[in-house]
Fold this protein.
Amino acid sequence: MKRMIVIGIISIFIYTYSWSAGVMLKTNEIDEASGIVAGRVNKDFLYTHNDSGGKPIVYILNKQGEKIGELLLKGIKNRDWEEIAIGKGPDDHFTYLYVGEIGRK
């Protein structure tokens, strides 16, 4: 049985949509991207993270695959992050970024 822990990361003043397309990463900080979501307001922003055992960071990329920022999640461990998503949260005025810790490690 898989265990799912969803971590509400941070309130962000952006809206996103699911996006899927090939992006060539131009940063060596991401060695095993696991999940990606793109911005709605700024369609050039992509959010991703490393899989198992990586630093607890959500990377912000442009569509050219270049890192343009990062969100460090203090006090959080990346045991086996598998997915990233955007959705509603406790405050309807914000959209929330979520990381899914759903792996088996």
Remarks:
- Strands lie at 5-12, 16-17, 33-39, 46-50, 57-61, 67-72, 81-87, 95-101.
- Residues 1-20 have pLDDT under 50 and may be disordered.
- The chain is about 0% helix and 45% strand.
